[in-house]
Every structure is written in C-alpha cells, then in structure tokens.
Amino acid sequence: MIDLYYWTTPNGHKISLFLEESGLPYRIHPINISKNEQFQADFLKISPNNKIPAIVDDEPADGGEPLSLFESGAILLYLANKTGAFIPQDLRGREEVLQWLFWQMGGLGPMAGQNHHFARFAPEKIPYAIKRYVDETARLYGVLDKRLGDREFVAGADYSIADMAIYPWIVSHEWQGQNLDDFPHLKRWFEGIKARPATVRAYALVARINPEAAKK
After folding, report:
1. According to a count of CB atoms within 10 Å of the terminal CB, is the N or C end of the chain lower?
2. Cβ atoms within 10 Å, residue 204
3. For residue 29, which of 209, 215, 213, 212 has the smallest C-alpha distance?
4. How confident is the model over 109-137, as pLDDT tens digits?
5. C-beta of residue 108 within 8 angstroms of C-beta of residue 140
6. Contacts of 174 (CB under 8 A, 6+ apart)
C-alpha cells in the first residue's frame, strides 16, 4: 500500500497519474496547502521541505521499515523502479526518459510556476516579470512541440514517467498565457493523455479532495 500525501496541484497530479496507471493500491492523505497543513509536524517528518507530494511505501523492495519519499520526480522514479513500469529497462531508453523528467523538474515546472505566480497571484502586477515567464514558458512549449513532432510520447513510442511529469503542467496552459493551437504536436500529445482512462480517474480526485478547485 502506498500512502499518498497529496493536494490538487500539478506536482500532486503527477503521482496520482502514476498510481492510477499502474494499479498500485494507495490511499490519499489530503494536505491542504491553502490552510498551511504542509507545515504540520507529522507531515514534515515525511516531507522536510514542506511540499507536496510525498509518499510512504509500507512494502519497500528491501523488506525493511516503511519508506518515505518527497520530491515528485524522485517519487515517480521510485515507483517506476518498484513496478518496472513506465520506464525502459535498457540503458538508452532509460536515459531518454530521465533527461526529459529532469527537464520538467528543472525547467518547465519552475518556469510555469513563476508564470502562475506573477500573472495570477502576485499582489503587484509586474509587467517585466509576467513577460519574462510567459515568454520562457512559450519557449519551453516550443521545445516540447518540436520533440513531439516525430514521436508519440516524449521519450519515444511508450508512455513514461516523463509524460506523467510534464502533462499536469500543460493542463494549466491558459493560466500560462499559452494557446495549444500554436503547438500542434504538443496539442496532439496533450489530448491523447487527457483521454486516457487513468488520467480521467486521477483528475476526478479533484472534485472529491478539493471541490473549490473543481469548480474553477
């Protein structure tokens, strides 16, 4: 059983996507970040950086005590290794997935996150900051669109943890000032993942866990 400490953010969705795709049994522990529940002492024991998502695996492969993990990219990689799914087993295929996973972790996620902040949440609208992050998000979308021009998924023919990491950040494309019609290969990829049954199930959690977000 995987205990998932979760909220309805792009990084939270990465892990619910994997769990729904893999069929691993899991239970959700909501961490309402709008109420600062991520700073509670019990959660900090699992996620010392006070960020969601985090997991606890009560049946790790070494047969030892329950294993806790934080950081969404590390969790995706752990779960892929645990199940042998959604990551190639050959050297070149595995590295292809990992570089795009890290591209999301180091590029798309942080840049789109700053885009969200300055465009929608900052108390002061700073045109320079908004333009900087909207433009950088557009550049990254362009990189992804080109990548998808000759392959079905980010790392090749098979759906992987790289796709799971990237997709939730594209869901918010309108917030980020991006039009998917400008990125036809990306749009095709996005619509395909959106239609996957596991994606539908993962995003259905929003209505149960965070009804206000579902309304928006």
Report:
1. C
2. 13
3. 209
4. 999 999 999 998 999 999 999 999 999 99
5. yes
6. none
The three-state secondary structure class of 5 is strand
Domain 91-196 has CATH 3.40.50.20: no
Count CB atoms within 10 A of the CB of residue 56: 17
**Which CATH superfamily hosts domain 2-86+198-215?**
Glutaredoxin (3.40.30.10)
What sign for the dihedral angle of Cα 134, 185, 207, 8? negative
Which two tokens mark 97?
Answer: 């997935």
138-174 exposure pattern, b = at least 16 Cβ within 10 A, e = fewer: bebbeebbebbeeeebbbbeebbbbbbbbbbbbebbe
Where do the domains of the chain lie?
2-86+198-215, 91-196
Across-strand partners of 56?
3, 68
Residue keyed to tokens 């045109």 = 127
Check pLDDT > 70 for residue 14.
yes
pLDDT of 215: 62
CA dist., res. 204 & res. 153, Å (int): 23
Helix (H, G, I), strand (E, B) or coil at 41: helix
Nearest CA to 76 out of 54, 45, 91 is that of: 54
- The predicted pLDDT at position 71 comes to 97
Cα-Cα-Cα-Cα dihedral sign, residues 20, 25, 71, 153:
negative
